């Protein structure tokens, strides 16, 4: 693992260069479209015109009826579900809102995590002077909880399975940073060597499990981790 330190990046230094890759369809039926989002691609358009290219726009170019249900961070890769009917969108939206959707992630973090599993319960709030960053805020933050377990330990890093119980913005990155094991390649929550240790954010949305909007069958969709 590369251990060189680099200067702390400024938000104004951000340059959006989305990957030029075709859509990777995981599953499609009459109600759902599952896509493997690549790292470096926005889920939805940004405010600037140069940030208009995103997964949502690429999906709508091929499937005009597709409707957004949830998002992943820019650097996070992995499975995202789109609805193909208004009814499916409403149904999935309720499942996400009521925390009925089971999500699992893979992350590589800095350092060797000592325990084999655990749970992080720390409230999160917007870090207003440094938006879009979030922060741990015991006084006014919203409740947030993440379960984790070790997949394997490397020489200078640990691979984890993450199971968010809530869906706060940047939750996994903020929680892991707070316990002293930042996600490798995370240049927003910069921590020296962890930021320069990987060319991309080492965070991947591995699977989604929920009730299918048509019929209610429990379904699970999984995308293999690319790192």
Quick rundown:
This protein has 227 residues and is α+β, with helices and mostly antiparallel strands.
Description:
- The chain is an alpha+beta fold and 227 residues long.
- Helix content is 14%, strand content 31%.
- It has four helices and twelve strands, in the order E-E-H-E-E-H-E-E-E-E-E-E-H-H-E-E.
- The protein has helices at 55-62, 86-97, 171-178, 193-196, and strands spanning 25-28, 32-37, 67-68, 77-83, 102-110, 117-121, 124-126, 134-136, 145-153, 157-164, 203-211, 218-222.
- Strands 1, 2, 3, 4, 5, 6, 9, 10, 11 and 12 form a ten-stranded mixed beta sheet that branches. Strands 7-8 form a two-stranded antiparallel sheet.
- A hairpin with a 3-residue loop joins strand 9 (145-153) and strand 10 (157-164).
- The radius of gyration is 18 Å and the shape is globular.
- The two termini are 13 Å apart.
